[in-house]
Amino acid sequence: MSFDSGFHLKGMAMTLNDFSKVLNYIDGERIPSLSGETLDNYEPATGQLLGTLPDSKSEDVDLAVSAAKKAQKAWGELSPEVRGYHLENLAQGIEDHIAEFALAESTDNGKPISVSKGLDIPRAAANLRFFAGAARYQSEEAFRTRLPGDDLLNVTVSRPVGIAGCISPWNLPLYLFTWKIAPALAAGCTVVGKPSEITPLTADLLARVAIHVGFPPGVLNIVHGTGPSVGSAIVGHSEIPAISFTGGTATGAAMAHQSAPLFKKSLLELGGKNPTIIFDDAPLDSAVEGAFRAAFSNQGQICLCGSRILVHKNIIDDVTESLLKKISEMVIGDPLNENTMMGALVSENHLKKVESCLQTAREEGGKILTGGERFSPEGRCADGYFLTPALINGLPHSAKTNQEEIFGPVASLIPFSNEEEAFLQERIYALEEVLFG
Question: How much is the pLDDT for 428?
Fold first, then answer.
């Protein structure tokens, strides 16, 4: 027994050939784009073509919206328990095929398979289970008015807003996609979702699971394609009153400009540039371990990464030495190997972007203590998009390298003399973010 298009049930191995054709998921069916046009999808670890995905347009979004609108009334009128039941089924489908999902995620994204199996895919299923449970505890409340002589009750009720447009990023593909669709579905909304065109595989596997478990047609719709073609069509669609987006700040600003005049309910989770602060009374080993993980997890491709490491001057030499040792011990290589600690960056374009940031650091006077060089693992990954983790010092807090998000395996060390100096630097940074973006 198998899913369509080569996705095998538990107990049957999956190969890279099974990733060759991603399709849209609309009204309960996996279908190509209406135009038949496709985009190429590349494996970051090899630089080789994996397959294709739909190059969808606004017409495909219209089709998905039509399906979501048709399904919304019946879905919204279901009890939270029944909606939760359907979400639990999706979660169970992911958990039953965690090996296949992890293989797809690591192949598509370049992250180590140990991370996909141990964190990303289990968390995706947990997102669905959490909101399935949370929906059951939604309550409606009544408040008595306090004006003299009144004996009235004000009642609050919860109703789904309609169709939610959910646009997710490439760094945690299924994890963040489910984090968006799960609360919308649990609340009784139907969804038109757009995964990143760079990492479409696990969203497509989720669609196959949805078909297999009998998820109600039209409630969840997935449209693949680029931001300008699909993302913009979702944000601007008159039948989609709510938008959730995670991605770059510039894209978020453009979306806000598009959606604000339409008075859409919008949630924009954008980029970040976060500090790790190590004081001289910190336990050195655990502090360095925390800073190391914060800086380089997921190849540094997390908006929460602590890429700016502030260290008290009394221990800066010890911290630097310890970080350099940990970086030298990292196993960089094929994401599908269980012992790999750092995989490939997500795309060739992103690799070049991170390299340009390193060049900026050099031009600003920074010293790259280690890393920042392309790396070619032996075997099938010789042509992949690998970069050795970089550690920089010698740059002031105000340097561009320390102010702008790099979104790669790059961390900068900044010494400070006392608590007031460290916090003052961070307050100045926060103020500049508010004033200048």
Answer: 62
Catalytic residue among 105, 189, 197, 303: 303
Per-residue tokens: 89: 């089924």
Q: pLDDT value at position 68? A: 98
Q: Is 269 a catalytic residue?
A: yes
What residue type is 219 in one-letter code?
V
Active-site residue, 303 included: yes
pLDDT digits (tens, 9 = 90+) for 189-215: 999 999 999 999 999 999 999 999 999
What is residue 16's predicted lDDT score, i.e. its pLDDT?
57
Crossing angle (nearest 10°) for helices 121-135 and 80-96 = 170
In this prediction, residue 430 carries a pLDDT of 58
d(CA 258, CA 121): 33
Name the pTM for this structure.
0.92
- pLDDT tens for 62-99 read 999 999 999 999 999 999 999 999 999 999 999 999 99
Which residues of the chain register pLDDT less than 50?
1-7, 9-13, 434-436
Choice among 269, 364, 404, 426 that is catalytic? 269
Placement of tokens 């807003």 in the chain: 161
